Amino acid sequence: MLRRLEITDYALIAHAEIDFAEGATIFTGETGSGKTMILGALASVLGARASAESVRRGAKAARVTLTFDPGAALRARFNDDGFALDADEDATIVREITDAGKSSARVNGRAATAGYVRDLGDRIAEIVGQHEAQRLLAPAYHLELLDRFGGAEAAAAREAVAAAHVRASACARELAALRGDEHDALRRYEDARFALDEIEGVAPEEGEDERLSDRRRFLDNIERIEAALRAAHEALAGEETSASGSLGAASVALAGIAEIDADLREMTAQASALQSETNELATRIARKLDATEFDPSELEAINARLDAMERLKRKYGGSIAGVLAYANEARLRIERYESRDEILARAQAALEAAQAELAREAATLTRVRARAAVALAGSVVAELAGLALASARFEVAFAPHERIALEGAEGAEFVFAANAGEILRPLARVASGGELSRVLLALVVALASARERTALVFDEIDAGIGGVTATAVGARVGRLAAQGQVLCVTHLAQLAMWADAHYVLDKREEDGTTAITVRRVSGEQERVAELARMLSGEAHDAALEHARALLRGVTAAR
Asked: How is the chain split into domains, by residue range?
């Protein structure tokens, strides 16, 4: 339930504070007084788009604060989403728009995204205005309203159809891609076959090119390597002066005095170890020297294989790893082509299964919609009878699609006849402005049972009506207000008389600027005066008596 709306520097409103009634809160004023700015501010704080034009001229920013009782479900959601409230604390949404067009929002004192606020807005209030009446002219909106009336069952069925449609579409795309152009498929197969034959002909191994490059570098430098190995071996273990012999002599000399102290024993051991390591190194060098033989045929074979691998790398991936990956891809392309008939059969079977599932889900949705259409038509006709359209008929006409679409197997359109004996025709072709407003109100009432318990906000729902019809519409709004919270912008006294809280908007020009003030009507005398103004444009005796009669009628009805 909405509690309070505070507006600062929004459009032409410098400041306004509005306390909502539990029943009907009504906004009135002269034509052009800016009544809809109140609802614009409310829509803004509930997540609607806002621009720098929303900021009052000369102000740095517009600020709108909504205070409301979130109810148990929203309170639990706030706790889960990090916007927790105390048990008896009201929730708040603050929307600020700067003169540069930047916007920010806070929920319960914490920063929130615009998307989060918009989602909250759908659960807090439902705004029904002249725009909604115009949307009634579009059959696509009719299907949306019908499914909304169908409630959870329709929502689940529609979601199942959408999911099945996505799966069937994916299967169809896959089959179309497989069927493709046969010439291109054959060309891709032959290219893959040629590439795989070429790669398998060389049969490279991971890292082989690096190993062969190292070996080629060794063979290219074999004379230097052999000379260095021979010189090293001579230095370590030659017949004349050698490192091994010198270390052996040092070891023998030290051994003679090793028993004298620990330091000498350690030096003796180190000399012996060095001689052993020198001998081991000399042996390794000798083996390497024996193995160092130049074979021209080996170098030629290495060069040929490296050339072959370089050609593969240039054509198929830049590295041996890339070449091997390309080979694997080629094998898969070859396998797919050679198994083409089997793969096509599987894809065809998958498509048929997905289409059968889609048809089943769509048939379920069609049945749900058919039941909902009968119930919706009955509810709307019953409501229209109380809105000065006692002879009106209203039905939902279905038109099957050639193919099942994302939203189901059929479209829906509201058909309407305002008077007895008339043929049912599409609502867009036969309804006048006043009739359209009443049909919209009847739909809103019918849909009330299928929506969450939110405040209903009517923006001049009375457009195009007057007289007895206005009285009937006002009475219906009054009954709605007895069941839940209603906000209404109106120019008709027959609606305003049902106000539990009544606000008047006045537009004034001062010092070359225009400003709108919002004042609450207090006391019966002020209410009578405002209703009289709405009835006749001025508060003369007849208008005042008419206004009093209206209020007496409200008191009696309640």
From this structure: 184-338
The one-letter amino acid at 321: A
| Cα–Cα distance for residue pair 336/405, rounded to 1 Å | 32
Q: What angle do CA 138, 142, 144 make, to 5 degrees?
A: 115
CA distance 413 to 141: 9
Q: Is 345 helix (H, G, I), strand (E, B) or coil?
A: helix
Please tell me the distance from the alpha carbon of residue 140 to that of residue 146, in angstroms, as a whole number: 10
Report pTM.
0.62
Q: How many residues does the chain have?
A: 558
Residues in contact with 91: Cβ distance below 8 Å, sequence separation at least 6, in sequence order:
67, 68, 69, 70, 74, 75, 78, 83, 85, 107, 108
Cα separation, 222 vs 330, in Å, equals 41
Residue 33 corresponds to which amino acid?
S
**C-alpha distance across the termini of the chain, in Å:** 21
Both tokens of residue 475? 């009475």
Per-residue pLDDT of 95-145, as tens digits, reads 999 999 899 999 999 999 989 999 888 788 888 766 666 677 788 889 989
pLDDT tens, position by position, 432-478: 777 777 888 888 888 876 666 678 888 877 766 777 778 888 888 88
Q: What is the pLDDT of residue 258?
A: 81
With residue 407 as reference, give the H or E element that holds it. none
3-state secondary structure of 236: helix
Question: Tell me, what's the pLDDT at 452?
Answer: 62
